[in-house]
Write a structure and sequence with these properties.
By secondary structure, the protein is an alpha/beta fold. It has three domains: 252 residues, Serine Threonine Protein Phosphatase 5, Tetratricopeptide repeat (Alpha Horseshoe), CATH 1.25.40; 57 residues, no CATH class; 154 residues, Glutaredoxin (3-Layer(aba) Sandwich), CATH 3.40.30. It is 61% helix and 8% strand. The protein has 24 helices and eight strands. The strands form two sheets. Strands 1-8-7-4-5-6 form a six-stranded mixed β-sheet. Helix 3 packs parallel to helix 6 and helix 18 crosses helix 19. InterPro entries: AhpC/TSA (IPR000866), Thioredoxin-like_sf (IPR036249), Thioredoxin_domain (IPR013766), Thioredoxin_ResA/DsbE_sf (IPR050553), TPR-like_helical_dom_sf (IPR011990). This is Thioredoxin domain-containing protein. GO terms for molecular function: antioxidant activity; oxidoreductase activity.
């Protein structure tokens, strides 16, 4: 949670005011050392920051230094500065943030969280931190989700109603709405999802000159909130109403068409616009969404009067997809020696890249808190299973950038709970010269990040980002792996 708070703080620095801008500028000053410095340089910077702490005049100076030390992975030094600041500013933001992290987020039950929240707003009232409503909105969203998971919809809705930042509240409303939908509480979920959808639409349709970082952040949630709300309308057979929302959305944000495609198809079918629905399915299938095949075949037969020609049509769509993937992976091609590693797996056994020479190795850098990473895992599982009998291919899932002290237990719990048959390695061993974990040595700047390494130990492909499309991931991995099996031609 500290990492998320820092990231968002820097994201919004340009719109937050002079103090926050200074903080961002001071952090930026040390980015070269944070990102590319040697271990000696990082140690020297940490030492210099500790030496200057005594001269700080504002709490903001302490906060910036804490964030820098966190990014340098100087946990002990960071705690030292935190303790000094807590003593100097017992009613300040740093002490409050430590309370939120150590007490609120570590509370086990909703009742305990609620008690911690009451203590939070009593000791650190919102009115005393009017420039930081987002900090409290994080807490409120978490508390609301906890009550929603308990089945206590009234309390969940109550705490969502306390949120202040319109641009961000969808991040609380959407998860709670989805939890309530799973519990079949459509009555409570629908207005929450509609509010999130309306908020996103408002920011999405602002004049370009008014779109600041907040507006851009808010508009990113439009497809998910829209899809969830319109699915409710479709389930209620309110197809015309659903179509009106969708078609307005596609005019305002045509780039979100993929995220709305399935609900658009259902709405078109519900209003009898079958040819348009067929065109939607064709595009989905051509992008690797093979789960729609039964609907596509049925609609093809209905529109053409028979099933004749369908197999050739189907094959042409798959051929088009395969060629698109082959063209796409050319953009990911590279050629350089893969840094060697020797890391521990979940059983405490050592696994090295050198021991896998002669195999094509797929490295997937991920973290338990990384939603795009988790979203891609069903597809990666399908890809791994398709190579289960190929002794020349090895998948390794490199768990990295975890922040919790008990990260190993969290990783084991996550993998076990989801029944993933992955070989997971802990990327927590730092290079003695640079102080970098393997993710940094591979040049990873964001996760998920995947590397395809050939049998000679060379990186042949590097890709970032994710999709939840299982079939597409499976096809893409096949093309990458099979290409890496072939000799490098330069």
């Amino acid at each position: 949670m500290k990492v998320k708070a820092l990231t968002l703080a820097l994201l919004l620095a340009a719109t937050a005011g002079y103090a926050q801008q200074q903080t961002a500028n001071r952090y930026e000053q040390y980015l070269p050392i944070i990102e590319k410095g040697t271990l000696a340089q990082k140690d020297s910077l940490a030492k210099a920051l500790l030496a200057e702490v005594k001269g700080y005049k504002t709490e903001a100076d302490y906060r910036t230094t804490i964030n820098i030390l966190r990014s340098l992975d100087k946990e002990n030094e960071m705690v030292t500065v935190e303790n000094i600041a807590k003593k100097k500013y017992p009613k300040g933001a740093i002490t409050r943030d430590v309370f939120i992290t150590d007490v609120f987020y570590n509370a086990g039950t909703s009742t305990e969280k609620e008690k911690a929240y009451s203590e939070l707003i009593k000791k650190w009232p919102v009115k005393n931190f009017s420039e930081e409503p987002l900090t409290y909105d994080y807490v409120l969203a978490n508390l609301a989700q906890s009550f929603a998971n308990d089945g206590n919809a009234p309390k969940a809705v109550h705490y969502l109603g306390e949120m202040k930042e319109r641009f961000w509240r969808g991040n609380g409303y959407i998860p709670v709405g989805q939890i309530l939908l799973k519990a079949s509480d459509t009555t409570t979920a629908a207005p929450l999802l509609k509010t999130a959808m309306d908020d996103s639409y408002y920011y999405l349709t602002l004049p370009e000159e008014q779109k600041d970082n907040k507006a851009r952040f808010a508009s990113m949630g439009y497809a998910s909130s829209m899809s969830a709300y319109v699915n409710i309308l479709v389930a209620q057979k309110k197809y015309a109403e659903a179509l009106e929302y969708i078609e307005n959305a596609l005019k305002a944000a045509p780039e979100q068409a993929d995220g709305l495609a399935m609900v658009y198809y259902k709405s078109l079918m519900g209003t009898g616009r079958k040819l348009e629905a067929y065109n939607i399915l064709t595009k989905l299938y051509a992008k690797g969404q093979f789960a729609v095949e039964n609907d596509l075949k049925r609609l093809y037969t209905e529109l053409n009067g028979s099933v004749q020609g369908y197999e050739q049509f189907n094959a042409s769509l798959k051929a088009e997809l395969t060629q698109n993937i082959r063209d796409h992976i050319k953009e990911m091609a590279t050629f350089r020696p893969a840094p060697n590693f020797e890391l521990l797996n979940l059983k405490g056994e050592k696994v090295s890249l050198a021991s896998l020479k002669g195999k094509v190795v797929v490295l997937d850098f991920w973290a338990t808190w990384c939603q795009p990473c988790v979203r891609s895992f069903p597809g990666m599982k399908a890809a791994q299973e398709s190579y289960a009998n190929d002794k020349d291919v090895q998948f390794l899932f490199m768990n990295t950038w975890e922040r919790d002290k008990n990260y190993k237990e969290n990783v084991v719990s996550f993998i076990t709970k989801n029944n993933y048959p992955f070989e997971v390695l802990y990327d927590d061993q730092k290079d003695p010269q640079t102080g970098k974990v393997m993710a940094a040595q591979y040049g990873v700047n964001g996760i998920p990040a995947k590397f395809i390494i050939d049998k000679e130990g060379n990186i042949r492909y590097f890709l970032t980002g994710s999709t939840s499309n299982v079939d597409y991931i499976k096809l893409e991995m096949k093309e990458l792996i099979e290409a890496a099996k072939k000799p490098y031609k330069g």
